[in-house]
Design a protein that fits this description.
- It is a single chain.
- The protein has 146 residues and is of the alpha+beta class.
- The protein has one domain: Roll (Thiol Ester Dehydrase, Chain A), CATH 3.10.129.10.
- The chain contains 4 helices and 6 strands; from the N terminus they run ααββββααββ.
- The strands form 2 sheets. The chain has a 4-stranded antiparallel β-sheet with strand order 1-2-5-6.
Length: 146
């Protein structure tokens, strides 16, 4: 994934502005929990998405070290992993209308989620970058870097 792609860019084939706007609307406005966390999509590509998280005192888990609560990290990775899959599906099904591709969002769900915390997230941390790593039996698997 490019370090600073244009919003909605997918290599030489950018997503349509309508598709990007639709994903952002679903992610940032229609999913109330994302609004509560303050998650905002920064970039959408076929192989991953980038988002920012506005740090607020309510999201701190360890007050003495000002560390982001692990539940916030987990929720952000879960929801952004789903968005990465949605972006990959949007690229894979470019022959469909924007509405049909956005309709696929209703079919997504997390079946299993495991997170190995390698280091604490500081209160100034505000970047999450999930990526689709591989397609297994026609479905994407997910991996994340942050």
């Amino acid at each position: 994934m490019n370090p600073s792609p244009l919003p909605g860019e997918v290599g030489a084939l950018p997503f349509e502005a309508e598709f990007v706007a639709g994903l952002k609307r679903i992610f940032e406005e229609e999913i109330a929990f994302n609004r509560l966390l303050g998650l905002k999509l920064v970039a959408i590509e076929a192989d991953g998405v980038r988002a920012s998280l506005a740090m607020r005192p309510e999201l701190v888990g360890n007050f003495s070290h000002q560390r982001l609560h692990g539940g916030v990290v987990s929720a952000a990775l879960d929801t952004l992993g789903g968005m990465a899959v949605m972006a990959a599906q949007g690229a894979r099904h470019r022959g469909e209308t924007v509405g049909q591709r956005l309709g696929r969002f209703a079919q997504l769900g997390t079946i299993d989620l495991r997170i190995d915390y390698l280091r604490p997230a500081s209160a100034s941390a505000s970047r999450c970058v999930p990526r689709c790593c591989a397609w297994v039996h026609g479905s994407p698997t997910r991996g994340w870097s942050s």
